């Protein structure tokens, strides 16, 4: 059942040049070879009939559609002539990231030469049986146990050399969903204990959302649907977003049904119902937007501000869609982005490219979002839009196999994630070498200078 489009490049290694400084110093990554049951076999977990569903009514949204496997996990193109737009399902990011690591320079065949070890384990796909198959719901503490057993058995030296501190992997989901205490009985539905396995405790997990004290994980951007393969395609899009006429003051894309208790989403929906002249709501309920970027990208291009309230969890993909559209994001709490994506969006720059309105002020303090945003001078809106479009390339996942020109011109979401993880691993291995293990778990200052 493995999609035939899903064929990996042979492993490329770059020999150190004989002249000039070695560009790979401190940047060598060994890709751990894993049995297919930890990655390619898991691509079977697609399509509505992959599992005997606990809740058949959720069938449409519970597993990624099999067509999402196309293009190494970017999904099918939005239409046949589209060059850069895909129907991307975030849960295939693990497979796509794997593909991008494979095409990277500075790979090390010998783990002894490597600064970091990448585990091409498709963790979120492997979690699906535990959260979807009624027969396995009680087993969810076992998610990842087979991997831990394999790593301790097969060439155990790779793992033990630095106690796992140099290992990293991608988990295409929120860290909260993988952090259930293994001893909870009965098991809570919808989450596993991957991050709580002692054997994996020292790994760095790249997740789409981190917890409040993320000492094991670091957040990387949710993938959007835009994956350019050349500098020309990237620039053409940014120019379009820059020039776009924006008649709408603010936009909200998300669940459009009013919540029963007062919260920020409810406040937004009632303001928008009152002020249809200033606010557009794109109804994304029931997964309507998940694989259909046209639905929200066009309205975002026509809006000045895009509202990013927390939903079930604090972060949302829509934040990254908005950045790409040059629609200035409006955040209602720091957990929505500022305390998450430091490698990609420097925390000290948020005032330049986003607006912050505390959610309590809106829900309980009588602050009207429309009025707050109407009060921002037009010149200031334009300045923020320029800044947000400067940030956009940093959160884009460019297509695999893109042109050397694009690769040299911009660091994309994968490049910055790899830079961040290498730096974090370097700090940890230095702490180990210096015999100061307490430094390993110190909260990092992850704001990058750009
Ligand atoms: C994790 O790191 C700590 C500190 O280096 C070490 O004592 C511990 O044994 C490591 N855990 C595993 C499972 O390797
Ligand atoms: C909506 O309009 C009504 C009537 O003008 C007003 O009483 C109410 O406070 C408004 N609600 C919001 C959220 O703006």
From TrEMBL:
One of its GO terms (molecular function) is glycosyltransferase activity. It holds the Pfam family Exostosin_GT47. Residues 1-17 form the signal peptide. Residues 24-371 form the Exostosin GT47 domain. The keyword Glycosyltransferase applies. GO terms for cellular component: Golgi membrane. Its main location: Golgi. It is a single-pass type II membrane protein. InterPro entries: Exostosin, Exostosin_GT47. This is Exostosin GT47 domain-containing protein. The lineage of its organism: Eukaryota, Viridiplantae, Streptophyta, Embryophyta, Tracheophyta.
């Amino acid at each position: 059942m493995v999609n035939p489009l899903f064929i990996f490049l042979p492993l490329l290694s770059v020999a150190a040049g004989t002249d000039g400084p070695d560009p790979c110093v401190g940047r060598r990554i060994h890709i751990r070879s894993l049995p297919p049951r930890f990655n390619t076999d898991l691509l079977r977990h697609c399509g509505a009939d992959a599992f005997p569903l606990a809740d058949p009514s959720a069938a449409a949204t519970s597993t990624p559609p099999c067509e999402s496997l196309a293009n190494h996990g970017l999904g099918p193109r939005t239409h046949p002539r589209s060059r850069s737009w895909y129907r991307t399902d975030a849960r295939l990011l693990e497979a796509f990231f794997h593909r991008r690591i494979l095409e990277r320079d500075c790979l090390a065949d010998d783990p002894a030469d490597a600064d970091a070890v990448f585990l091409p384990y498709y963790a979120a796909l492997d979690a699906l049986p535990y959260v979807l198959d009624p027969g396995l719901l009680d087993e969810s503490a076992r998610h990842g146990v087979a991997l831990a057993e394999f790593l301790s058995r097969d060439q155990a030296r790779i793992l033990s050399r630095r106690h796992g501190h140099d290992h990293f992997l991608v988990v295409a989901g929120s860290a909260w969903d993988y952090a259930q205490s293994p001893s909870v009985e009965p098991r809570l539905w919808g989450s596993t204990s991957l991050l709580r396995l002692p054997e994996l405790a020292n790994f760095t997990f790249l997740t789409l959302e981190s917890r409040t004290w993320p000492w094991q994980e670091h957040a990387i951007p949710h993938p959007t649907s835009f994956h350019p393969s050349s500098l020309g395609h990237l620039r053409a899009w940014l120019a379009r977003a820059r020039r776009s006429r924006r008649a709408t003051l603010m936009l909200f894309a998300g669940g459009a049904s009013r919540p029963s208790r007062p919260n920020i989403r409810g406040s937004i929906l009632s303001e928008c119902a009152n002020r249809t002249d200033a606010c557009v709501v794109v109804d994304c309920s029931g997964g309507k937007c998940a694989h259909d970027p046209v639905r929200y990208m066009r309205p975002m291009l026509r809006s000045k501000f895009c509202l990013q309230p927390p939903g079930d969890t604090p972060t949302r993909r829509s934040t990254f869609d908005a950045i790409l559209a040059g629609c200035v994001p409006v955040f209602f709490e720091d957990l929505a982005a500022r305390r998450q994506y430091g490698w990609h969006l420097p925390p000290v720059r948020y005032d330049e490219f986003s607006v912050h309105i505390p959610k309590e002020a809106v829900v309980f303090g009588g602050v009207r979002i429309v009025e707050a945003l109407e009060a921002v001078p037009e010149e200031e809106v334009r300045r923020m839009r320029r800044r947000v479009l400067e940030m956009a390339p940093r959160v884009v996942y460019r297509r695999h196999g893109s042109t050397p020109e694009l690769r040299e011109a911009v660091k994309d979401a994968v490049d910055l994630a790899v830079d961040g993880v290498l730096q974090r691993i370097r700090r940890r291995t230095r702490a180990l070498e210096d015999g100061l293990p307490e430094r390993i778990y110190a909260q990092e200052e992850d704001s990058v200078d750009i």
